[in-house]
């Protein structure tokens, strides 16, 4: 019975709504543009024409089929009517009123106006998120909503309307980037709008997280609905990230330009302190300019502190929600520059960054910048940092988009003199083995990194040259870690065996201190001239720190075939190889080209000359006969 009753009631509501829409359509078809202007003038001129208000509201409805310029005309009249009355209207959420106030005609009139105002706000929110709305109409709707937000709460900032507006934009199923661009360009310069934007984004992300958590307990039979909901969640997350990323930073806030409120009363004082604040402002105006400037600096500092708190809550709540892959990458790229400097407590990002760093691949490379800042500037302890960093060294890292920043951070991470010798040796040997499988630009970066490692850590210079087959010398035994022991087998003393385990992901177990940088020696014969020339810098004694300098990795980290080719063209060469011989060659190849081979040039020449004697005599005889015949004929 209950289900039947619900069906009947829903059908009645649906039918009633259709009838109201038809009635609105019939009314809108009756009036012309001049009639709308007359209705607006009458509404603004006298209270006796208050019945024009519902008529004008029908033109602003999202379901109205009236042309956009009709809606614009009606909206301008309604905005001019409601703006002066907003401070007098009662709150829509107030339910407790006295019996005397309920019978007061003025109170009943203002309550009725409040309900019509709420209907207007709902219509404006529908228009802003409707796919059929005109762009010019959307811009006017945005300005009208922000005017209502400005004074809608008894003359103060109406955060509820602003929250509903952001929520309608974020959860819209269509692309409304135009509205977001207008909101960011026009209104994000005001401090109070930024403040409530942070609060709104935090609330929306929490609602989204709670909805996603509750949705995980529901078993979906239709996979299409689940994919559709996932798409909508990703779109919502992207828009919230778009809003946060387009809010200007508070760094270097100017007192005159950036310290600007959309609502003149401000949002950082209580309602009861409004009169006291006005009196304080009047007293400050009478004081000297120096006193006034000091008070302004203090107020800016207080506002910046509160803004940082809201900024931190909004970003942390967004990063805790599931992010689409493209948004995830954009966040990691800009996190260390746009977010971390403005957070009140950057350590709150440690969970997000450590999870990102543990993923591996490109995601770990992007997270390295922010994680390095937390470790060096904010005291974050991450025990497996170097193990994860070592795992990132692969040939594919030399082809990624963010390889330049990665190599600079890699050089910075290996700069500490407290780095153990076995760890520095593992990175040097791993880079050395990669030099055989990377393009020339990658080989240049590897040479620069190994150069700096050998100069900073003299204990690993034994990797440059080993004469005996044993992988351990007396000097090396002091640098070895306690866990690394020399094998007792005879194979460890055989010459030509590399004890380095290239497949090991733990740098402690790679046996790098028992190996050598023999791959670097092969670069002396590299086909690319810049590589073969640059590798000669490692032949210097890098333990003499006074006579050597570190190389700037950033000069080589962004190289490519094109940059190497341009540098070679600009390079001035004193001795240019030319295509000529100082002595006429007697053979195509010399004996030095084929060591161990013997060529009998004399026997070959005699056999060739003997076979050609008879041919030469016959040719001479034929030429003589032909010459004699020509003479006789003449």
UniProtKB/TrEMBL annotation:
Domain of life according to the entry: Eukaryota
Domain CCAAT-binding factor residues, every copy: 364-535
InterPro entries membership: CCAAT-binding_factor, Noc4
Region spans: Disordered: 1-32, 473-506
Signal peptide, first to last residue: none
GO CC, alphabetical: Noc4p-Nop14p complex; small-subunit processome
Any Pfam family the entry gives: CBF
GO BP annotation list: ribosome biogenesis
Biased composition, class Basic and acidic residues, residue ranges: 23-32, 473-483
Family to which the UniProt record says this protein belongs: Belongs to the CBF/MAK21 family.
Protein name: CCAAT-binding factor domain-containing protein
């Amino acid at each position: 019975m209950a289900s039947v009753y619900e069906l009947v009631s829903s059908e009645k509501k649906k039918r009633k709504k259709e009838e109201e829409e038809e009635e609105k359509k019939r009314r809108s078809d009756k009036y012309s543009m001049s009639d709308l202007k007359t209705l607006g003038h009458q509404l603004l001129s006298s209270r006796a024409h208050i019945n024009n208000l519902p008529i004008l509201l029908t033109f602003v409805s999202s379901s109205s089929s009236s042309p956009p310029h009709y809606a614009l005309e009606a909206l301008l009249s309604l905005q001019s009517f409601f703006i002066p009355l907003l401070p007098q209207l009662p709150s829509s959420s107030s339910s407790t009123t006295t019996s005397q106030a309920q019978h007061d005609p003025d109170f009943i009139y203002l309550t009725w106006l409040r309900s019509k105002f709420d209907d207007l706000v709902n219509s404006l929110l529908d228009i802003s998120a409707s796919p059929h709305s005109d762009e010019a109409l959307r811009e006017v709707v945005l300005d009208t909503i922000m005017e209502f937000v400005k004074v809608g709460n008894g003359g103060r900032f109406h955060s509820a309307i602003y929250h509903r507006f952001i929520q309608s934009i974020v959860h819209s199923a269509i692309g409304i980037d135009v509205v977001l661009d207008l909101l960011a360009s026009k209104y994000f310069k005001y401090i109070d709008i930024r403040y409530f934007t942070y609060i709104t984004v935090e609330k929306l992300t929490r609602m989204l997280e709670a909805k996603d958590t509750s949705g995980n307990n529901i078993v979906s039979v239709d996979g299409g609905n689940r994919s559709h909901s996932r798409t909508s969640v990703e779109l919502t997350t992207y828009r919230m990230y778009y809003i946060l990323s387009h809010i200007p930073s508070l760094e270097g806030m100017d007192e005159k330009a950036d310290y600007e409120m959309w609502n003149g009363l401000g949002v950082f004082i209580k309602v009861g302190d409004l009169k006291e604040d006005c009196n304080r402002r009047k007293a400050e105006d009478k004081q000297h300019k120096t006193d006034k400037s000091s008070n302004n600096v203090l107020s800016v500092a207080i506002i910046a502190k509160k803004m940082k708190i809201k900024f931190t809550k909004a970003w942390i709540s967004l990063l805790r929600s599931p992010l689409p892959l493209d948004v995830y990458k954009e966040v990691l790229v800009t996190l260390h520059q746009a977010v971390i400097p403005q957070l009140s407590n950057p350590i709150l990002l440690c969970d997000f960054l450590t999870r990102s760093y543990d993923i591996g691949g490109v995601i770990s490379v992007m997270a390295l910048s922010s994680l390095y800042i937390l470790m060096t500037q904010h005291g974050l302890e991450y025990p497996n940092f170097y193990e994860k960093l070592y795992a990132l060294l692969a040939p594919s890292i030399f082809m990624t988009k963010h390889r330049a920043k990665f190599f600079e951070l890699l050089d910075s991470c290996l700069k500490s003199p407290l780095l153990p010798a076995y760890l520095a040796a593992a990175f040097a040997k791993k880079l050395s083995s990669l030099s055989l499988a990377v393009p020339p630009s990658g080989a240049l970066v590897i040479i620069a990194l190994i150069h700096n490692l050998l100069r900073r850590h003299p204990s690993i210079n034994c990797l440059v040259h080993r004469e005996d087959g044993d992988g351990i010398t007396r000097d090396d035994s002091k640098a070895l870690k306690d866990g690394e022991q020399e094998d007792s087998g005879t194979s460890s003393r055989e010459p030509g065996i590399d004890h380095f385990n290239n497949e090991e992901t733990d740098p402690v177990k790679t046996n790098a201190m028992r190996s050598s940088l023999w791959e670097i020696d092969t670069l002396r014969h590299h086909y690319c001239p810049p590589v073969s020339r640059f590798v000669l810098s490692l032949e210097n004694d890098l333990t003499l720190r006074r006579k050597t300098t570190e190389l700037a990795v950033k000069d080589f980290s962004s190289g490519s075939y094109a940059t190497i080719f341009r540098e070679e063209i600009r390079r001035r060469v004193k001795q240019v190889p030319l295509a000529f011989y100082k002595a006429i060659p007697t053979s195509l190849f010399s004996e030095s080209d084929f060591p161990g081979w013997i060529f009998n040039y004399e026997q070959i020449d005699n056999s060739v000359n003997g076979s050609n004697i008879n041919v030469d005599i016959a040719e001479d005889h034929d030429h003589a006969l032909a010459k004699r015949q020509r003479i006789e004929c003449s």
